[in-house]
Amino acid sequence: MSNVSSGFPIFCLTIGINHYVAGHEDFPNLAGGVLDANNFDKFLKTELGVLEENILSLRDQTATREGMFLGFTWLLDQVVARLGNAYVIIFFSGHGVWDTTCAGSMLCPSDIGKQVVVEGGRTKIVEGISSSTISKCLRKLNAAGVLKVTVVADCCMASRLVSLGVTESMRHPSTTLPVPFHNALGVLPRSIPRFTLFASSGRSALSYEDQNGGGARFVNQFLSVLQQEHFKNFTDISLMHRLAVPSQPGSRQVPHCISSRMYGTPFIGHGDEGSSSFAFTAMEGSQCSISVRAGSAEGIKVGATWSIHKTNLADSKENPALGQLEVITVDLFSSTVRIPRLPSAFPITAGSIFYSKLVQNAGSSISVYSSSRAWLESVIPPAAQRELSVRIVDNVEESDLVLNVVLGRVRFQRRNQLEMSHSEPLMRDSVDAEDVRAIHSVVKSSIHFDYHLKRHSPYKFRDVRMELKEVVEEELEDGDKIFRPKEKNLLDQGSATIRVDEEKQFGVTLHNDSKIPFYPYLFYFDPSQLTIGEYSCFFLLLFTANTCSLFLVPCYLPPVGGGEDGFTNLVDAPLMPGRKLDIGHSTVNDSPWIFTLPPGENAEVGYLRLFVSTQPAAFDTILREVSPFLPTEPAKGLTKKNPHQKVAIRKWMVETATLNLIAK
């Protein structure tokens, strides 16, 4: 077994096709498909330590439709035999084409288009392997308990090989948290694949072979990046930032990553190795300045301070701060910072890629009050007030946050609510009155929470609508289940009162009624836990009689694109004009939402906040999935502008809906 995978084996199916037997003009022979697969096999053995008997290699005449299905079955058998304690990697290099039957794309086996004789003497044309079939294979692997499936696909329209709904996943159930922690918004548990797709091209784009070095451009670059540095230093998203596939004149090939574990390490990551709080940061060679990919749209202001890191791994011991950055200018989606002095081991040169984490934002502060001012000043002395941007006030009416000390415990209450909300009750959880670090953590989280909940965009929100509806389960002919929405939109008035019933399930639909493509980012603000969860990076606690397990809730995120200088603004999966996006319903890969209240509670307030932008943005940097009330461990210690690109409208907008949850 491979030491890389911490004792769990990795099983791989690698497919490379040069020769297509039908000789159809739509499937011309390729030069590099077999070479790509052979090079990937070599990487698996030498870098990942995968045993040779754990790799099933299909090439040309063995990579038929039947052969590929037998390969998927072999993978499933290996996972079942090990009770799910295994990782799976699937690699494909060959043709991909549009599939009209499922509005996706499909992989082309080597015998696609061939006429074969079936029972009864009839002839049949061999078909490709559709995206819906691939999704079903992923779900079977997930149902068998696979730790993670990684798909690397180099073919045309590669990012359409899975539905965007498949980006939903549950975290490995070994992680547990104290029972008192609870989030109101969750999803109905379903067998949804834990997977990452590294795709060579966009949803309607072509992939190209490398005419100079042989093989495909994407595979060559993908392996080159992985071999530059140990793969465990990357996360799925940071690996994509480093992919730069040269474009053929008159065309663009933009790699994509669609993942339920965007912040997990490639191939064997559980999803929690990285952190969304890090922003992509690059050295702009032409201007000799450092640009952080987060700007005024993400709430950044001039004077903000970032720490700079080599990667976006969450472990501060593995990924220490190399220095600090001060923001000197802010654009809509990026910030320019002063070049810091870094250790000689980490020089900054043109094109260098780093990651930055916001330490303190300029202008973000909070007013706090306690009836025991002497105690408050002892736990938040002047130095801490400056560091946290806290102002102590004498009048409770002037405060943003009230700290009440009762029987040695501190209870918190937010004071300045949104106009449309009901009064927010005391936060359920408390901290020890002598635990200064925990108190500071709650105060700091309150500043972050309030700032992103209340800030407004410079543009009015008109042409993108958000609907919340109850959904009901419906069984399809093939046995799959789908959730259909009822007619009534619960957010007609911008807020909704929901009588909590665990039998009721809900879904959201986003409508783009404008004439401009938008990228949507949907968050759930939980004031009782001071968490900001995204429908892709959201924690859900599932309670049973004796256990409390933490899962990662599914979510929609626009796929991450790679490109020149490691990032591109041309990721081609926005919500197009006149289209809608269903979240939590309408496809077999989706899971509906559920709303719950903790035992003994009768009411709770939550906020759905929808951010939309005209280009991919770093709104995930505002996520704060972990509540400050949870126990903490001791501290451990741009894109170049394309001169030929049209100048597009650049803006962002935000809309908030209040959810008042009450017991039925």
Describe this structure in words.
The protein has 664 residues and is an alpha+beta fold. The protein has four domains: 10-259, Rossmann fold (3-Layer(aba) Sandwich), CATH 3.40.50; 278-359; 366-454, Rossmann fold (3-Layer(aba) Sandwich), CATH 3.40.50; 464-663, no CATH class. Helix content is 14%, strand content 30%. The longest helix is centred in the C-terminal third of the chain and has 19 residues, at 436-454.
By secondary-structure content and strand pairing, the structural class works out as alpha+beta
**Rg over alpha carbons:** 25 Å
Helical content, roughly?
Answer: 10-25%
Strand order of the largest sheet: 2-1-3-9-11-12-32
Query: Overall mean pLDDT score?
Result: 80
CATH 2nd-level architecture of the largest domain: 3-Layer(aba) Sandwich
Q: Indicate the CATH class of the largest domain.
A: Alpha Beta
**Distinct helical segment count:** 8
Number of DSSP strand runs: 36
Strand percentage? 25-35%
- Shape verdict: globular
What is the first-to-last residue Cα distance? 52 Å
Q: What's the number of domains?
A: 4
Poorly predicted runs are: 164-181, 535-555, 564-570, 632-647
CATH fold type of the largest domain = Rossmann fold
Largest sheet at a glance? 7 strands, mixed
InterPro entries: Pept_C14_caspase
Protein name: Peptidase C14 caspase domain-containing protein
Pfam families: Peptidase_C14 (PF00656)
Domain Peptidase C14 caspase: 11-260
